[in-house]
Specification:
Layout: E1 2-5, H1 13-23, E2 27-31, E3 46-50, E4 67-72, E5 77-83, E6 86-91, E7 100-106, H2 113-130, E8 135-141, H3 156-167, E9 170-172, E10 179-180, E11 185-188, E12 194-197, E13 200-205, E14 212-217, E15 228-232, E16 246-249, H4 258-288, H5 293-315, E17 318-321, H6 331-352, H7 358-396, H8 401-412, E18 425-426, E19 432-433, H9 436-451, H10 463-479, H11 484-487, H12 492-500, H13 515-521, H14 535-550, E20 560-566, E21 577-583, H15 585-594, H16 598-601, H17 614-631
Length: 644
């Protein structure tokens, strides 16, 4: 594991990642990040977790302080505490070992006695909580001197640190023989004389002392602090059971011109034609065996998706995707970085040499600064070039809304807040929960309460419209009037119109079916006419009519993926998120057909369409429509089941 006081992470991001890779670091705490709401540091290799951040004031040119952690992808860890100048992570280990709680901290200046005392109190509380279930590693910039690693000074902050850590039964690694390097912070006096001190430390639980392999005060990477690496023997982090990459369809291979579309559609028409014939036979066999209708509907829905997947595999193929990797050092920048390393090494030698003159030290400092600035300028130029390329792509793709916003998000990605919830949450009592299990419980309770409408909430769902609709349904049930639009079988034309209205590029539900693939397969792109013998549409008609007449939904049609979208105010409060539910594509089309029962339900209030009303026009209309449907019997309907 590692620790680094970056003093602005943004320009040093690639250098830090290179150093972590070189040193074999799997978890690293970063302080003085000097960023605010920047979630753009994660890539294919590293996961960035932002800690406490300070918003820049109106007159500030940059943000002060800020913390965060890098964790290598593929390993199990969780952020369990975040507060000002303090951040804690839980690292899971292999071989039934207790977890390690890594506490990263950053103290204010050594003469801020009150600030040091207050922060030590918070650290003591964390250590007391974590040591019950695991080991402790405490690392950070303590702004304290203890005559360690070549530093001959000692101050009150250092004595306080030694006293506090002994009370918590933590051992200082800096004073062990395994610690390599001299000084952790480098500076320069007003007279131009280079100085070195040690204010970055690492402490471990007594049980971990025998596991310490080495501690290294390494390169500064453009900061005035060394990159600290702590290695342990016989311990390894547990790998995550789920890969960071996931397999998706190559939607970029969807056909573009009429000739390609014809070839694409032909494959799916053949596959779904075979599926329809087999499905009819399979349904009759299952019914003859007495299999329950809900089980049959599940089998039909699963086999329908499998047939679509077969065609997608033939015509599109799959790919593994994950977070996009940031461009690393190219050959030109590696040369500049190597030059910076040489200048840094020369500066170290000059600084520790007591015979070096002030002129030699000043020259070494100047050479190092020039090398560091040259590297930073090259990094900035490369980022500007990448942004200019993106701007050109945006100009070229203005006609394509999806591609336009995809390119635009590359520019704004680092400026906007993350829409995902943070790894902690406020419970009902206002207490901050950071344990991953407890966080999930709070979100689960919140989602359950949203779905459970109370009597006080019913008044906001258009009571008058609901009562009028239920009254009309009651009268219609008494009259037993024919309702052809409701009772007749679902037709191919209705399904085709519903498929054509699907928006492409939308996220799939639990079935994984993409609307863009289904529309292309159903020959519903670039045409508004249903061609004879469209086996994809016929397959959907077969499935929908079976559900309609048997009154049994496939289980997956009643399931959805709930994702909370951040809207406003505090990000720890679940009520400040708007949950959205991703439903299966096929179930969505069945609902779209069901909500077209205008002759029975009538127009929605305020002249809005049913599908656009979230409160009652959508959910309530569906509920009243099926209250009629379920209370009537199949015998009372015109038409017969197509499978009869």
């Amino acid at each position: 594991m590692g620790h680094f006081n970056a003093q602005s992470l943004d320009p040093k991001e690639e250098l830090v990642k290179e150093e972590m890779k070189k040193e074999g670091v799997t978890h690293c705490g970063i302080c003085e990040t000097w960023v605010y709401k920047n979630g753009g540091f994660s890539d294919q290799s590293w996961v960035w977790n932002a800690g406490h951040e300070l918003q820049p004031g109106p007159d500030q040119s940059r943000v002060s302080r800020g913390m965060g952690t890098f964790t290598k992808r593929g390993y199990t860890s969780a952020t369990v505490h975040v507060s000002e100048n303090l951040m804690a992570s839980r690292l899971e280990l292999n071989a039934a070992e207790l977890p390690i709680y890594v506490i990263e901290t950053h103290f204010t200046k050594s003469d801020d006695t009150a600030g040091h005392v207050e922060l030590w109190k918070r650290i003591e509380i964390l250590v007391a909580e974590f040591e019950v279930t695991g080991h402790i590693v405490l690392m950070g910039d303590f702004n304290a001197h203890t005559q360690s690693n070549g530093d001959e000074t000692e101050d009150a902050a250092g004595r306080r640190m030694v006293k506090k850590t002994r009370k918590m039964r933590l051992e200082m690694v800096n004073k062990m023989a395994v610690c390599q390097g001299k000084f952790s912070r480098f500076g320069e006096t007003s007279a131009g004389v280079s100085t070195g001190t040690t204010i970055d430390y690492a402490f471990v639980s007594q049980a971990l002392v025998v596991r310490i392999k080495s501690m290294k005060l390494g390169q500064t990477l453009g900061s005035d602090h060394s990159f600290v690496t702590l290695r342990m023997r016989g311990l390894s982090m547990a790998e995550t059971s789920k890969s960071a990459l996931r397999e998706v369809w190559r939607v970029e291979n969807l056909p573009q011109n009429p000739k390609e579309i014809t070839s694409f559609v032909a494959v799916f028409q053949q596959i779904m034609g075979d599926w329809t014939a087999n499905a009819r036979t399979q349904i009759m066999m299952l019914e003859a065996l007495g299999i329950e209708a809900n089980r049959v509907s599940d089998i039909v829905e699963w086999s329908f998706q499998s047939a679509l997947d077969k065609g997608s595999a033939l015509k599109l193929g799959t790919k593994s995707v994950g977070p996009k990797a940031l461009p690393m050092l190219d050959s030109a920048m590696r040369v500049l970085n190597d030059h910076r390393v040489v200048c840094e090494s020369a500066l170290r030698k000059v600084m520790v040499n007591g015979d070096s003159t002030s002129e030699v030290r000043a020259k070494a400092v100047e050479l190092y600064r020039d090398a560091k600035n040259a590297l930073f300028q090259a990094t900035r130029r490369r980022k500007e070039t990448a942004e200019q390329q993106t701007f050109r792509q945006i100009e070229e793709k203005q006609a394509d809304s999806k591609l336009f916003w995809a390119r635009a998000s590359r520019i704004t990605g680092r400026m906007k807040k993350s829409i995902s919830p943070p790894p902690m949450v406020l419970d009902k009592e206002g207490k901050v929960e950071s344990d991953p299990v407890e966080v999930l419980k709070v979100w689960r309770r919140f989602s359950a309460e949203m779905a459970d409408m109370t009597s006080e909430e019913e008044g906001i769902y258009d009571d008058e419209f609901k009562e009028a609709t239920e009254s009309r349904l009651k009268n219609l049930r008494k009259l037993r009037i024919e309702q052809p639009i409701l009772d007749d079988p679902i037709t191919a034309e209705e399904v085709f119109r519903a498929v054509r209205r699907m928006k492409m590029g939308k996220a799939p539900g639990v079935d994984g079916v993409l609307s863009s693939i289904l529309r292309h397969a159903a020959d519903a792109v670039g045409t508004n006419k249903l061609k004879p013998g469209n086996s994809v549409i016929e397959a959907m008609v077969l499935m929908f009519n079976y559900v309609f007449y048997k009154e049994e939904w496939p289980e997956r049609w009643g399931s959805g993926i709930i994702f909370p979208l951040y809207k406003q105010d505090g990000r720890l409060e679940p009520g400040n998120y708007r949950p959205i539910t991703l439903l299966s594509i096929s179930s969505g089309k069945y609902l779209a057909w069901s909500l077209k029962a205008d002759s029975l339900i009538g127009p929605s209030p305020q002249g809005q369409s049913r599908t656009s009303r979230v409160a009652f026009g959508g959910i309530g209309a569906l509920q009243t429509r099926f209250s009629y449907f379920v209370r009537s019997s199949p015998v009372e309907r015109r038409g017969t089941c197509p499978l009869s």
